[in-house]
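How a chain folds remains the central question behind the approach discussed here. This step matters because it turns folding into a mapping between discrete strings. The sequence in question and its structure tokens are set out directly beneath this paragraph.
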Amino acid sequence: MKLDDYLSPEELKRLASALLVVLGFISIAAFFGFTVVPGLRYQAHTTPDAPIQAVQGETGWLDPTDYPAMAREILPPIDPATVMTPNPKLMARGEALYAQTCATCHGADGKGNGPGGTGLTPKPRDFAVKAGWKNGTRLEDIYRTLDEGIKGSSMASYNYLSKKDRMALAHVVQSLGTFDHGASDPKAIASLEKLFASAGEVIPNRIPVARAVAILCREYAEAKPPAPASTIR
């Protein structure tokens, strides 16, 4: 027995049309459920005008040290007087950066107890304790750590941030410890002041490593399409 033994050609056409409509609705519902709804949920929990839009360590990043997405910027030279000494505007910027880039591992109070630091070896630095700082506790030492990172640890370089932002972070990190951080080296401070005042800087486009890997994989697949099935033995 065949299906057309029970149904006329016209009925078969109507049945096929109805089936296509049902499949179409299922496809649309699946697309909405897996694509649109998660996007709406994300938008509902984000602030579009936040000063720093990308948050490291959120679900979807490769890891907490992955670079956030940033557009290319051309920045002018900086007046050293505006960054070498803490001021309310600079500290507010540094605190916002710290909350979104450092607190994941170092903790909100800088005690090295952030959730992202669990299982890391060595443990994230406790900024409230004077001992054990790899590069030192002076302002220029902290700036160097932010600029270069620390090899052999999970402390990555933050040189994707502008010089001003790195200095804002350095002031905030230093403020988290009430101990004596030591007198700065006049030559090191003069060198930093010259770095800020002598020239501007270009902050290049930056995307998360996970996104870069996805782009490379796609480009490779487009450049090297799979061989036809007939040629595979």
User: Anything to note?
Assistant: The longest strand covers residues 73-75. The chain has seven helices and two strands. Strands lie at 73-75, 201-203.
